[in-house]
Amino acid sequence: TQLLEQSPQFLSIQEGENLTVYCNSSSVFSSLQWYRQEPGEGPVLLVTVVTGGEVKKLKRLTFQFGDARKDSSLHITAAQPGDTGLYLCAGVYAGNMLTFGGGTRLMVKP
Amino acid sequence: EAGVAQSPRYKIIEKRQSVAFWCNPISGHATLYWYQQILGQGPKLLIQFQNNGVVDDSQLPKDRFSAERLKGVDSTLKIQPAKLEDSAVYLCASSPPDREVTEAFFGQGTRLTVV
Asked: B108 vs A97: CB contact, 8 Å cut-off?
């Protein structure tokens, strides 16, 4: 079983602050995905990074895939209350197998 | 396009009872996943189907859990008998075939409480 560890587990910050969430594994993945999940809903895909060293930006969110394709980070600039939620990383391997990390619960206070 | 449909949304049962969850994936999606998400944790894969065949069920507690995907479309997940530790959200997801990069679309989940 491929394991992904996310840190931190919980993060509470003020509006306007920056934050970074990490996703680490000893396994190599063909791609790495980030999902966001709100209470009572299923996870929704934010981004997929495929190439080692790849950086993708989605408005105030920046995603990076490690050179060795074992780790990833999510950086949010100037966080807003609407960014509150559970952020999940997921590693893709063996074609379409998908394994999730434990999640980072983010709360952004106004 | 319609999303992944799951029912029921909520279910409360007593321990040792049986329960079944239903999932209707997005039309044309060959891959179907069932995940268990315990409160405060990330989703854990229970079983993955490719059409009507099982790809991975290594983390499915087969003494009490069973799943089937008849005709490669709808799927049901059953627990018999339920234990207190089965309390969780059960998420169904599907992904389209022949994509270079996998993208999973999730339903809203079924929240199970075992008392």
From this structure: no
